[in-house]
Design a protein that fits this description.
The protein is mostly helical and 163 residues long. It is built from 6 helices and no strands. It is elongated and about 85 Å long. The N and C termini lie far apart (59 Å).
């Protein structure tokens, strides 16, 4: 069977590489200093993630405190809502370390909504609805999940050192 005209002229028949074979894959350098110059910038705004995490923790703590003390502050509603979404989201996000950042954020936020809905449904089912009880229940569930994740990682790291 003879080759068609286009197949006879194909560069691969003469030993040329296909476009997929010419893609370069960047490997990390052995000294580990591949992109440090890009990541570390001098001046203000070099690492805001720690500052934002601290601010979010403070807002969440104020929200929980305002809800538990039944204070009549105008910040009570928004900061309590932030706490009720952030506490379970952080715990679920810690459990999902293998996902890419966007998928992890989306999944942990959806999981936080599910935790809040389950707590609300449980309180409504037993006719014990209260804001304080909801905040305490969400806090307890978030802490349990976070402690389970930390315990799992400690168990894994202890198992690795034994091997």
């Amino acid at each position: 069977m003879s080759l068609r005209h286009i197949e006879a002229r194909h560069p691969a028949r003469r030993g040329a590489k296909s476009p997929m074979q010419t893609l370069g894959i960047k490997t990390p350098s052995p000294d580990g200093a591949q992109d440090d110059a890009e990541r570390v910038r001098p001046g203000p705004g070099r690492d805001l993630s720690a500052l934002l995490a601290g601010a979010a923790t403070a807002v969440g703590a104020v929200g929980a405190l305002l809800a538990l003390t039944d204070t009549g502050s105008p910040l009570r509603g928004p900061s309590t809502l932030f706490f009720l979404l952030a506490a379970p989201a952080v715990a679920i996000g810690a459990a999902l370390r293998g996902l890419d950042p966007f998928g992890r954020a989306l999944t942990s936020l959806a999981g936080a909504v599910v935790v809040n809905m389950l707590v609300a449904q449980g309180m409504l089912a037993v006719h014990r609805w209260s804001v304080r009880g909801g905040v305490v229940a969400v806090t307890a569930l978030s802490l349990l999940l976070l402690l389970a994740v930390l315990g799992r990682e400690k168990f894994r790291s202890g198992k690795r050192t034994q091997e």
